[in-house]
């Protein structure tokens, strides 16, 4: 008996559909009963959000695709996204179970979009898993793995997961295990299945236990541990008997028959297989039925019933081709090749082998070199002996080429993986360092805005108003003060705000400070008419340090008229210019005054603001600028200071 390196996808794939739904709905046109219309209307008005609540409400109708389609359409009309997503997912499962994979994928994709719009994690996870199963059934390994991994990551992020989420996690793990199995990573697959087994035991889900024992049996069968495979298949069958699953029994018995065939027990295999022909058709899953027919043909091959064997295998092949199942087509060609080789027809055996090889490449399966050699040698012996050495050399070249390619790919993958890991680690370190730096800047910024001097002086001013019984001024001042504090606290949690909000904040700040300066400061904000300041973004609380500097270093020591003007101009299409102009004593005099003070306060607000502007402008090639210009009159006497900020805009 010839043992394939990898038997194409086995009944384990069909098992996955049992995770979601057992049974099939009526697809023929029918009248929608008035009772269901009323029930659908009631559910849509209630709008339950979870999968479990919807599944409970529609448990009697979820096998009927016509009723589900009506419910989906009504839910869409009423913008009940969860209801439409649930119904489309159920319909998709039924199409998948009858091997209408294109329709199934479209329905699950639509269900996913609706679940995302509804921001419903439970329904999103289910739709992703269902898409993974559909693509897995059509041997689209990469696409299936993407959907199942996305479902698993999404579900595992849920805190305090519901029973439905826990079962969805098990489905994802089981699907990923099956994908590892398809890639011949059997030990990795078994790890996934055993992890799922443990979780299913905690949930008491006997269906899940049956499925995963079946999957473990598949992996052990591929590894050549036939006794271990038999033990797990029998455990799976016992659970299916317990839950009375016809679908599960068909799958398990086909797997047991396959083991008997590998153990040269074709009569025992036929005892299991023959009753499954009609049972599998009744179930309506066109994935498992071809496998049963092909295995029946294999059994008759071992019993030398070649005509019967050919008929059964061809029936399985035709079903697989009708429903476009590449793995089953490959399996059928392998068994046809083995049949022809067994009865000595090496030319036909070789032709079937070549067809199998084409499908083998299509689904990325490994080549069975031992089987290929046997067919080639038998075929060439039947023809010309002098061609045997040529074919053997060709086979050796193919073998060496594949081995070389495998080695090259492995080394390349290791190098790429190592470089990717190093780059990722370096990137994460940079990202973490940058995030920490930004957080520190934001904290320092808040401290600089909420400095104790400003708070103390403002509260003292309010206190004086109250002591002097100036209630109106006290209330007015307190309102402005509380509004400013609220704006500072709100803005400190944001990376950027609109220029309009920033100007409103600094105007409040200047109003409060001006009260303490006896309203003798002429403060104005002048904005170009062609600027829409609501659409211009700036770092939050970026202007206040410059105004504070003008107040306490420029205007505070000055006698006479005091002025601060804030001008906003459009410099060009990519920058806006903000100027803070005061008529204070100038920087030289301010430095001298600062040196003579007994209590020196270190000013860090402008330095922090410059760092924040640099961080804000990172996406614009750091294209910001801060310039401080000393102003002089015609006689060369200091007449104030001008701060010019060039800030990038979108």
Coarse morphology: elongated
Note the beta-strand portion: 5-15%
Strand order of the largest sheet: 2-4-5-7-6
Distance between the termini: 72 Å
Main beta sheet: 5 strands, mixed
Q: Could you name the CATH homologous superfamily of the domain at 1-243?
A: Tetratricopeptide repeat domain
Number of helices: 27
Considering DSSP H and I runs of 4 or more, what fraction of the residues is helical? 55-70%
- CATH class category of the domain at 1-243: Mainly Alpha
Q: What oligomeric assembly is this protein in?
A: single chain
Report the uncertain regions.
Answer: 1-29, 365-383, 445-450, 598-602
Q: How many beta-strand segments?
A: 7
**CATH architectural type of the domain at 1-243:** Alpha Horseshoe
Structural class: alpha+beta
Q: Might you state the CATH topology name of the domain at 1-243?
A: Serine Threonine Protein Phosphatase 5, Tetratricopeptide repeat
Question: How confident overall, as mean pLDDT?
Answer: 80
- What is the alpha-carbon Rg in Å? 38 Å
Explain what this protein looks like in three dimensions.
With 650 residues, the chain is α+β, with helices and mostly antiparallel strands. Among the domains are: 1-243, Alpha Horseshoe (Serine Threonine Protein Phosphatase 5, Tetratricopeptide repeat), CATH 1.25.40.10; 498-648, 2-Layer Sandwich (Heat Shock Protein 90), CATH 3.30.565.10. The chain contains 27 helices and seven strands. It has helices at 12-16, 34-46, 51-57, 65-77, 81-97, 101-117, 121-137, 141-156, 163-182, 186-203, 206-223, 226-243, 246-262, 266-273, 276-283, 288-302, 306-322, 326-342, 346-362, 369-382, 388-449, 452-467, 471-492, 499-516, 544-555, 587-596, 605-616, and strands spanning 496-498, 521-527, 537-539, 562-570, 575-582, 625-632, 638-648. It has a five-stranded mixed beta sheet with strand order 2-4-5-7-6, with helices on one face. Strands 1-3 form a two-stranded antiparallel sheet. Helix 2 (34-46) crosses helix 4, helix 6 (101-117) packs antiparallel against helix 7 (121-137) and helix 11 runs parallel beside helix 13. The radius of gyration is 38 Å and the shape is elongated. The two termini are 72 Å apart.
